[in-house]
Amino acid sequence: MGHLEDSLDQCIKCNVCMTACPVAAVSEDFPGPKVVGPQAQRFRHADQPIPDASVDYCSGCRVCNEVCPTGVRIAEINARARAALVAAQGQPLRNRIIARAGLVGRLSSGPHAPLLNIGLGLRPVRWAMEHVIQIHRDAPLPAASRHTFRHWFHQRGQRHGLRQIVYYHGCSTQYYEPWVGQAAVAVLEHNGFEVIVPDQKCCGLPLLSNGDFVNAKRYHVYNVAQLLPYVRQGIPVVGTSTSCTLTIKEEAPELLDLASQEVADVAAHTYDIFEFLRSLADQGELRTDFRAIRRTLPYHPPCQLRAHRIGVPVLDVLGLIPGLRIVESQAACCGIAGTYGLKREKYPIAMAVGEPLFQFIRTSGSELALCDSETCRWQISHATGIRTKHPIEILAEAYGLYPS
Amino acid sequence: MQYDTIVIGAGIAGMLAAIGRAKAGERVLVIAKGHAATHWTTGCIDLLDVGAGDPLAGIAALIAAQPDHPYALTGIHAIESGLARLQEICEDGGYPLVGSPQQNLLLPTAAGALRPTCLVPVTMAAGDARQLARKGSGEPPLLVAGFRELRDFFPPMIAANLQIQGFNAEGVYLTLPPLAHAADFSTTGFARLFEQVAFRTDVGRSLRKLVVEGGYQRIALPAVLGIHQAPQIVAELQSICGALIFEIPTPPPSVAGIRIYHLLEHAFREAGGRIQLGAYVQRGEAHGNHLEAVFSEAAAREQRHRASRFILATGGIVGGGLRAIDAHHLIETALRLPLRTPASRADWFFPDFLAQPGHPIFRSGVAVDAQLRPLDAKNQVVYTNVVVVGASIAGCDHIREGAYEGVAVATGWVAGGM
Fold it and tell me: Average pLDDT for residues A313-323, to the nearest whole number?
């Protein structure tokens, strides 16, 4: 047992996590974080039968960790328990597919993307997918991009700057939303950075959250090897996907017990992009030549960002833009939790979990919402019909770098 | 980001202080490890355990006898003002706290004991023991009702214990109305069910039937009657069943306590404040006796938080602000402030487990001056820009004295108004 499992000894069974868990609030399939976490953990032992398969209904949103008065790492205990379940019982084909975000993205993007997107928009296709691979027919699937982010980046050529910075784009920017990466590059270059985009694979989070620790480890070891040479030169790594950066910072090292200095160094130099921009602002190094944006926009700080435990840097940075008013959602979770809400049996739970957030967005009266996490953006847009952008796009717009 | 004030801890003391400072126009951040003892406690405001007597008079005597007691440092006026402020916040949130600081109420607990407390939510007011039917009075008995599905709330036991104390009470389990799907039968699960009109109408009708058959005029229910609209739900149930209804607080998680947190959180956000949960403050950074920043635990590295003033509201041994790191040492967890605590382990406890005066360890805490600034062993101010509030303060056995919320309210109000 590692320090994650040991943290269960801090549990005083106060049930505060049970009151806050957004999944247990809407679903009878999930008995709640205390029950499948610290409680069931006492019965999990290599020589014993698996006590509780309902841990698979934990979405991994980490709201339990956030509210726990005594510091139990409930979500991580659950993630490891799920991995043990997968190791013992195997993985359905569906999970093996959706957990490989990089592979799926690579196969989807390219010249054939428009055709694929049309195909995925057809009800019979989605019906077949639901029955064959158990992906819910209504679940939000992103439209693949014709051109990848890396294609755009390499075509424009390397641009020099005063300081270097590494950009970790992750799968969503690479294959589905290259404009998020373009906005990030524009903002960083505007602030005097030379942006480096090293070779990289999926961060491995979808594998971790589907319990495939073996392959997640392979990806993480690869990414650490790619990022380490820059980190060793003191060059920071930033990412626009809050879940990728969280995986590099903490989830992969902790869940996979990767304790090497290399892994720790890469983690210590990796930042959520707004966390990094906020630290620039704190040092007076962030450019503030903003155009006024006279708008009020609803913003949801995703679970994956809150799990960084760094506050809400978007509010600090976008708060510098004249005229812009950001209204922060108080909702626990949008429900999707990466790949959770795609699954046929979990889609209705995910939609019910997200309902308070959808209400907040719908009643805001805004035609645009903001959220740092890609799958959450897709979920919000799917449920509300309202366009959802990464906050970096608004920042780029405020700098006059990027069309709205 | 530089804040004017950072409050560490999201309980009553910290939130009240934070609201005060934010209302004064400051930029305020609340950082907390998680939810506070609000979620574990009754949702009533205990001032001092003087039975059914006058707590303010009791506090006046206490102040004279114990000049280091937190109440002695804040003074009576701060207690009254703090209570008034809290009442205003709850009133604004549509959840009035009733009662008087000059008269404790005795309310039944989930064990059927009578517990002295001072201010209570309007949904509990009809549980005042002076109003309950006594044996032989000829009045219809109190009906204590609950659900078998709700853990840790046993109406027959509550009624039996009230009977022993001379009250006329009966306990009954209600049949759970048909549900669309099996729910989580925790206190909060029930509170969510009571927010559904169909569910509470069904419960109201079951109660109506009992009232018609048994002639009851007063019914006790577990304090799970909704999270956000409890007074309306109680009124609705009363009008359906035709009897007075009051709530009895439950063991944790306490819905009534959660309501207080929601009201404070709402008032704080309305005043422009920000809250960061899941942030465990583990150390500070100081220049001389000026605290520059605090650091909270975060993914991959600590987060540094800067402010001009810090308010420590992390609680005592219950809340996690004080912790025994081994068999012999108690520490203050956020800033490692010096503690007033028994010198050796041998002096932590009396040999008698239920010793009347309470074990000395529970009076441990941070010694503070009249401005609630932390003091060291030589009574020198440790940090001039740090204020300590609530159960972190030494010289009070907050729970045993029945002063847990009262000290939080008084010190929180003082810190919010500085």
Answer: 97
Q: For residue A31, say if its preceding peptide bond is cis, omega within 30 degrees of 0.
A: no
- A367 assigned to some structural domain: yes
Beta-carbon separation of B276 and A312 below 8 A? yes
CATH label of the domain that carries residue A350: 3.40.50
Q: Which of A18, A69, A282 is opposite residue B34, by nearest beta carbon?
A: A69
Using one digit for the tens of pLDDT, what is the confidence trace for B232-261? 999 999 999 999 999 999 999 999 999 999
Kindly determine whether residue B303 and residue A309, on different chains, have CB atoms separated by under 8 Å: yes
Using alpha carbons, select from B400, B395, B402, B401 the residue that is nearest to residue B74. Answer: B395
Identify any residues that bridge with A387 across adjacent strands, giving them in sequence order: A368
pLDDT of A1 reads: 43
Judged by CB atoms closer than 8 Å, whether chains meet at A16 and B296 is answered as no
The shortest C-alpha distance from B48 to chain A (Å) reads 25
Residue A250 is classified by DSSP as: I
Average pLDDT score over residue span A196-225: 96
Angstroms from A310 CA to nearest CA on chain B: 6
Question: Nearest by CB to A309, which of B182, B189, B279?
Answer: B279
Name all domains of chain B by residue range, CATH numbers in brackets.
2-98+257-417 (3.50.50.60), 125-248 (3.40.50.10660)
Continuous segment of H or E residues that includes residue B310: strand B303-312
B33 contacts A14? CB cut-off 8 A: no
**Spatial distance between the Cα atoms of A101 and A95, rounded to a whole number of angstroms:** 11
Q: How far apart are CA B193 and CA B199, in angstroms?
A: 6
Q: Following CA atoms A11, A86, A97, A167 in sequence, which dihedral angle do they give, to the nearest 10 degrees?
A: 40
pLDDT of residue A88: 87
Complex ipTM > 0.85: yes
Question: For the segment B280-309, what is each residue's pLDDT rounded down to a tens digit?
Answer: 999 999 999 999 999 999 999 999 999 999
Are A15 and B182 in contact (CB < 8 Å)?
A: no
Please tell me the pTM assigned to this model.
0.95
Domain hosting A21: range is: 3-89
